[in-house]
Amino acid sequence: MTRSFYPPQRTLMGPGPSDVSPRVLEALARPTIGHLDPLFIELMDSIKTLLQYVFKTQNALTLPISAPGSAGMETCFVNLVEPGDTVVICQNGVFGGRMRENVVRAGGIAIMVEDEWGRAVSPEKLEEALRNNPETSIVAFVHAETSTGAQSDAKTLCAIAKQFDCLTIVDTVTSLGGSMLEIDNWQIDAAYSGTQKCLSCVPGISPITLSTAAIDKIKNRKTQVQSWFLDLELIMGYWIGGGKRAYHHTAPVNAMYALHESLVLVKEEGLENAWNRHYQNHLTLKAGLDAIGLDLIVPENERLAQLNAVKIPDGVNDLAVRQQLLADYSLEIGAGLGSLAGKVWRIGLMGHASRKENILLCLAALESTLKHQGATIGSGGVEAAMAHLRAR
């Protein structure tokens, strides 16, 4: 028999998606209107303005791509990279590797600058690579590496790129709304993100923003963009067409309602307040993890607040713990990726999930589950977190 699907109520504290605000879920259920309806066009303009706010930019080309963050990544690369272009890619985790795949498939030449997983990108290595490859026209890196919980110094990396007259493409999927990010002040030419992380919206939309210099590069291409759907010159006709919009695709109307509501929530809280909330909640979680005896793998000055990579104690079965957390507490945390698979858990404190009650649930559930698995750990994670909260 075919039945409707009713998912359980989970607490999502992995690398994404994150918990979605009830207000955002309610927005999804509002009546669908046409994607060229004058009222929907007004909503599109409001979304663009709010995205400029969270990106901290005046870029006219700031809009949501009707597809997940991976499509936002591809949008930036297929529009800015032409066959033969040299691109320096800084990789310190999984997602730098995906940047390389995009460059190669666009016919570009990828020069890799490798850093240890769990560490920030090295500005010195980037500068050396640019001196050794003067033909480079683009620098690409991940601001907040979701696979490791490391945050790189985007401002410094972009400043180095500009010294060598390079455009910059920056992955801000996990940083947007959760970490300090200033597109204009940091001279970021192209950035892409996702809605399912610190914006606490449903998955499936990718906010992007491109500078005037990036637009000039697109307008002066010698070759056609290889993707029709992600060709920004076509998309601009729909999203940045004034009162008259050129039909490009049927936008996911209800998902755009949800995105708008999630951005309204950020504006109501205040962007800087949202950054601070993520940081303070990270410190609270860390206080509890310290009491239990669990360590974070990223050095303190390079850590993400919203994505915490926790070292798995020796002898503990990674999968068994995550399965028990899901079965007993309906709590999801993430596994390690790549070289960190089986070595770390990724605990997300993103957006609506970055709340006191989630932190306390996670600490209590982890402590209980690890002891049930026979791990030798400390006690009092919840008490330590509460002590930190009271001292704030």
Protein model, in words:
Helices cover 42% and strands 15% of the residues. It has 392 residues and is α/β, with parallel strands linked by helices. The strands form 4 sheets. The protein has a 7-stranded mixed beta sheet, sandwiched between helices. The chain has a 3-stranded antiparallel beta sheet with strand order 11-14-13, covered by helices on one side. The protein is globular.
Task: Give keywords.
single chain, 392 residues, Aspartate Aminotransferase, domain 2, Aspartate Aminotransferase, domain 1, 2 domains, seven-stranded mixed beta sheet, three-stranded antiparallel beta sheet, 13 helices
Rg from alpha-carbon coordinates: 21 Å
Shape: globular
Beginning-to-end CA distance, first to last residue? 54 Å
Remind me, CATH topology of the largest domain? Aspartate Aminotransferase, domain 2
Content-based structural category: alpha/beta
Topology as a string of helices (H) and strands (E): EHHEHEHEHEEEHEEEHHHHEHEEEHH
**Tally the helices: what do you get?**
13
Number of domains: 2
| CATH class assignment of the largest domain | Alpha Beta
Give the mean pLDDT. 96
Tell me the CATH superfamily of the largest domain: Type I PLP-dependent aspartate aminotransferase-like (Major domain)
Based on the structure given, which CATH architecture of the largest domain is correct?
A: 3-Layer(aba) Sandwich
> What's the total count of β strands?
14
Major pleated sheet: 7 strands, mixed
Give the oligomeric state.
Answer: single chain
Largest sheet: spatial strand order: 2-10-9-8-5-3-4
Would you identify the regions where 5 or more consecutive residues have pLDDT less than 50?
A: none
Strand content range: 5-15%
Q: Give the proportion of residues in helices.
A: 40-55%
Keywords: Aminotransferase, Pyridoxal phosphate, Transferase
EC number: 2.6.1.112
Binding site for substrate: 346
Domain Aminotransferase class V: 34-336
